[in-house]
UniProtKB/TrEMBL annotation:
Residues 25-128, 183-224 are annotated as: Disordered. This is Inactive TPR repeat-containing thioredoxin TTL3. Residues 38-54 have a biased composition (Low complexity). Keywords: TPR repeat. The keyword Transport does not apply. InterPro entries: TPR-like_helical_dom_sf, TPR_rpt, TTL1-4. TPR repeats lie at residues 236-269. Transmembrane segments: none annotated. It comes from Cardamine amara subsp. amara. The lineage of its organism: Eukaryota, Viridiplantae, Streptophyta, Embryophyta, Tracheophyta. SUPFAM superfamilies: TPR-like (SSF48452). Residues 92-124, 211-224 have a biased composition (Polar residues).
Amino acid sequence: MAENPVEKRKRCGLLGVVFGRRGFWSKKCPADNGSHKSTTSSSNASTSTATTSNIQFTKSPGTEFNPRKFQENKVLPEPIQNQNQIQRPISKPSSNQAPNNNHQLGSNGNYQASNSPGPVQQQAKKVPREAIGLSGELESMILDNQKAKGNNGSYVRASSSNVMLFGNLGNLKQPGAAVGNQTTVQNNGYGNAGGGYGTRKTMEDERRTSVAPTPVSNNQDQSGSLCRAISTRMDPETLKIMGNEDYKNGNFAEALALYDAAISIDPKKASYRSNKSAALTALGRILEAVFECREAIRIEPHYHRAHHRLANLYLRLGEVENSIYHFKHAGPEADQEDISKARMVQTHLNKCTEAKRVRDWNTLIKETANTITLGADAAPQVYALQAEAFLKSYRHQEADDVLSRCPVFDVEMSTKYYGPIGYAGFLVVWAQVHMASGRFGEAVEAIQRAGKLDGNNREASMVLRRAQAVSAARSRGNDFFKAGRFQEACAAYGEGLDHDSRNSVLLCNRAACLSKMGKFDRAVEDSTAALTVRPAYTKARLRRADCNAKLGNWELAIGDYEILRKETPEDEEVIRGLSEAQKQLMKRRGHDT
């Protein structure tokens, strides 16, 4: 979809100053429940809201579905013969086929195991008309498919009361299932992995990219999956209503699957795109939600609810100008309060820009916090500014906390949305946070990716050289320490500190070497330096307590041990150290009196 004139305007303001772009989460908007508001159509949609959080999604186990095998063996249900009954042929196995257990549909509507041996005679089975509704057709298709494949499938029952194969329509969990379907769920885009999303495919994409099917007839559509075969037999409006029901019940992945199915049947319906955007927002996939809203507006330019939803998304992403533009086009969906809130966010963003320009890190920390609180809670450039301010203030632990709160988006989607240069700017900051926290491998990986995205980024080149030097020094020091060569290990860690003098991990490791060498005073100094930038660094605090105890500084040792006891109450080393220090202190006071 072509962007509107405001979105095409040259990026300026905060992102222009920081990374050359604007923007990043949106308030989750409710799914459309029916027709939407526009200048050409009335609205009877109901609104449903739900609180979302930055969740890391996990893949659901299931049974792997083989499109090629299904295509080669599928048995289609016969059409209704007359008004009162239908005939459906049952597939006939080969005579040399070993007997196995087959699923049969019992009188109570449940699948039952049959142990009848021998081949099944081909015959016409009469089914009452009342059993052949939509649910009956779906169950017949699944049953035939399983018999044709000659194995026992895994079944789940969706909220619509229709039986379907596990993994083909939504991220539905089923206990005890095999792990083989994890890839299927991820590729369908309804599962997720922490920090990233797999390649998401709609059902239409799956149909196009599946293996070449066996021709059935010149006029028959060659479906690539059972899910596609099922969904095309349903009315897209029914799928949307089912999706709305799942959305209201908090089943966002299932709702997303149903909206995708509706779109695959009727891709020109704006409300399906808008509802899909709501489901994606609830799942934390903000950037994908933006693209779906844009497509809905492209299909129907005066779709008020889509404009309002997109405005909220832009506000969460920190793109205030775009947000205000769409609020103004949202008609009765928006009010003056929405626009006022967006302008308040813009005011704080401007203060962030100025604070970074004059290198006023404390003000920058304050203003980025205000910006996030007022609504830009999914804007990675704001989190990156805050993390950078903490790093410059040598508050490495708080910088790491910022990274943990920042929303995690798919790398490919982020690059598409922010552009290579904009996304590279974020990666440079995150690489420095990883390095300050001792995650050297992740730091090198992030900064290398930034260099590939923006080869002209001089800061990325500098950070890469520093990360590689620090990582190599740490590795050499660890090897020497394991070999008991403490002096050489101490020197290796020192070389790394020449490149990053406040690195808490290198300081703590060097303190360990100094302690082994009996230089407890210097070990206390390095441990204290590490705790200055990372107060919650347990290993450094334990080392300082131990060295102070060996120096006879019992009060200082007890102070550290008591803090550790609160953090790790079951740690036996801490309990022993605290007890010994208290005894020694009491003994000293007894001698003094």
